[in-house]
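Morning run. Coffee first, then this:
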Amino acid sequence: MNYRTDIHLLDLPVEILFNILKRLNNLDVLYSLIGVKGLDCLARNEIFTNTLSFGSTDGGEDSAIDETKLNRFCDSILPQIHNDVKSLVCDAKLIDRILRAGVYLNLTQLKITGYLDNTFPDICTVNSLGDCFYLLDGRLMQLSSFIVIIEEDEDYSPMEFNENNLNHLKCFSLTSKSITNEYNNQIVPLLRRMLNLQDLTLYLQIKKRHRIVDGIQLENDILSHLSKLQRFVFYISTGLISEHSFTRLSNDDIQRTFTNFKFGEVGWTMNDLNRCLIRYHIFSLPYKFYSIEAVGNQFTNTIYKNVTAVWVSDSISFEHEFFLRLARCFPSLRYLNFAYGEAQQKISVESQHNDNILFEIVEFPHLKTVIFGRVHIDYVEEMLNESKTRLPCLTEIWVHFDDLKSVTNNFTRDATRINCLNLKNLVTHHSSNNNNDDDVDFLKRQSPDFYRYFPSLKL
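And here it is:
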């Protein structure tokens, strides 16, 4: 029996060709067959164009496309098939080039990888509000769900963006990890474009205003423009500034602004940051977010079971009772940052390092990282002294070296030893005679007592 040895792909039945090509990566099919006579039409089938996944070009383990392929896709292939793309997975480093290569009018799912440990459909981590506007400038008109996380400090963008309504968007979440000045100029106009929005999540820290964002402001600025909204989850803090003395808003004042609020229970609190700045916080209950900023002495006794990261700051000192409340209200706390704290008032100079005085012990069973920023040495004592606080999981602290040395009595004090036993990472601020002296070199020159005090430390 004679067999043909010159069979070409075009000689195969279409069904067999499809079965072969479906076993390949869609990018490989498009790169190899777009523009090839007789096979181009097969490559343009929705099986290969509806879902595209672009990995990194850095040669990493998850790399899906090299630079040569990327150039051809952006210059030639994507401009031909962009209307057929419905699902797009893209490494964060490539998102700008990929989106500029086409107008994805039928895109319904966007996944951007490379910023988070875990990636989810429709999540995008960007550097500014300008980046968010860029992604929503009209090229993703069919997008129905979009989650944006803003990482960096710079939120102003002088660029002009498409301001058409986003009629298909049903679910939108905006989390800004930095303080913004653009609530009125950028955020409110963006939200008003989402006429059919049903689910809205906002985590915002507004830098400085002369009026807080309260229930009335939310209704007038946002909610009255979103008639189809069914669910609203939020945390919004506002820095209220004044050149003169404040007339502080009471809990009743804030509560009255939410009299006609339709989206469940609301919590609120405030704290003094300095003589001319007070920060007010309003949030939906139960609290859904994993962090909360600028917690002060007057925070409400709500149980924030989801919160793992807290920043504390107040012009009024934090006494021992504050930490008892903090531990009760934040049972899952893993990260604590002291942004600012005055000297404690109830601890006399004589009793501060007296290990025989009895305190009700504060327990943070999950706390791993403590950062001592612009705070008095009292808080290093408060956290490390096991007669006041127990930290069984503490593995990292950031602290001024002189404060640490003083509180631990030059790394010999037993009362602070237990909380330091599991420390693996120690970041210190210190005065060194050598300007080129880094933290590791500085710590390596410490005494044997230092190393015995921190047996788990990794240098």
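The longest strand covers residues 199-209. Good start to the day.
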